[in-house]
Write a structure and sequence with these properties.
The complex is a heterodimer of chains A (238) and B (57). Chain A is mainly alpha-helical and 238 residues long. Chain A contains 9 helices and 2 strands. The longest helix of chain A is centred in the middle third of the chain and has 30 residues, at 87-116. Chain A is globular. With 57 residues, chain B is an alpha+beta fold. Chain B has one domain (7-46). A two-stranded antiparallel ribbon of chain B has the order 1-2. In chain B, strand 1 and strand 2 form a beta hairpin. The chains are: A mainly alpha (238), B alpha+beta (57). Chain A binds chain B through residues 51-54, 56-57, 84-85, 101, 105, 108-109, 112-113, 151-153, 156, 237-238, and chain B through 1, 4-5, 8-12, 32, 35-36, 39-40, 42-44, 46, 48, 50-51, 53-54.
Chain lengths: 238, 57
């Protein structure tokens, strides 16, 4: 995999000069470049053991999340009256609901696969923890979604949840019967939190590589270089 | 418009429920869980398709 030389803009420093520079922009650049080993942001090769359907559910979950966000943005543009009364609004509302169903189904199957694979092995504890955090954050986001449907279903869920949350002693921190507060949590606060956790989770997966099945040998790579085309040993499948 | 609002605001019945000892679950939720377990098992058992490059060799 060769990379074509990118012409520098007039006045831009040579890469070597940038790596030595002590400006904050150069420091941020070095930090971002160092987050993931070279060639692993979007790898085009994976170890042979990744050729299994059980490795598909993480990215299926991510694809569902993209559909959730896009359909949610369209619902935000149309508004409550639109999604309750127009045919297209009903359709987008349903796309939002079913992409959430798919998101949780694929996330839980991903969780089962990684649990039985003991995916926290190989210094991947933080990857496991951020995945768990993403799961619990998603539960809260989905819950507030039920609260902001603006129908009797939402009223029933919010009144029941209010009693449950008060019994748990956390009802003073927020009011699930406050539609404005829950709407803002659902469309801004919680998606931002879940989105940030998911980004950290993906960076960690790219940083450490996908976990090998129990008993399989992880391909060894040269330090500082995980470029698969240069360093993957036999047993690696394109 | 008002009719549409009224139709949209009607409660949706939860559907049939299964009682099994201490467990109470709607048939819809039970079917979703069983489907997820089936997909999980199939993902472990079904062979993954080989990439095109490998088929040409």
């Amino acid at each position: 995999m060769s990379r074509a030389a990118t012409p520098l803009r007039p006045g831009s420093p040579e890469p070597q000069a940038r790596s030595r520079s002590n400006t904050w922009t150069a420091a941020v650049t070095r930090w971002v470049e160092g987050l993931v080993p070279q060639g692993q942001w979007l790898p085009d090769r994976q170890p042979a053991y990744v050729a299994s359907w059980i490795y598909v559910f993480g990215v299926a979950c991510l694809a569902s999340l993209v559909v959730i966000i896009v359909s949610g943005l369209v619902l935000a543009i149309g508004g409550v009256a639109w999604w309750h009364t127009s045919a297209l609004g009903h359709f987008v509302n349903s796309v939002h609901l079913w992409s959430v169903e798919l998101f949780f189904a694929t996330m839980v199957i991903h969780l089962w696969g990684k649990f039985f694979m003991a995916a926290w092995r190989g210094d991947r504890g933080l990857t496991w923890a951020t995945g768990a955090l993403a799961f619990f954050g998603s539960l809260g986001t989905a819950f507030t979604g039920y609260l902001v449907q603006t129908n009797f279903d939402a009223q029933w869920i919010s009144t029941q949840a209010k009693d449950g949350l008060n019994a748990a002693g956390i009802g003073a921190w927020f009011n699930v019967m406050d539609l404005g507060q829950m709407m803002l949590w659902h469309v801004s606060l919680l998606p931002l939190v879940v989105g940030a956790i998911v980004v950290v989770h993906i960076v960690l997966v790219r940083r450490h590589g996908v976990v090998p099945p129990i008993g399989a040998t992880e391909p060894s790579v040269a330090p500082g270089d995980r470029s698969p085309t240069q360093s993957m040993p036999p047993g690696v499948q394109p | 418009m008002i009719t549409q609002y009224l139709a949209a605001s009607q409660p949706v019945p939860a559907g049939p429920v299964v009682h099994w000892g201490w467990l109470t679950i709607t048939v819809a939720n039970l079917l979703v869980i069983l489907l997820m377990i089936a997909v999980f098992v199939l993902a472990l058992l079904l062979p993954f398709p080989a990439p095109p490059e490998e088929e040409d060799r």
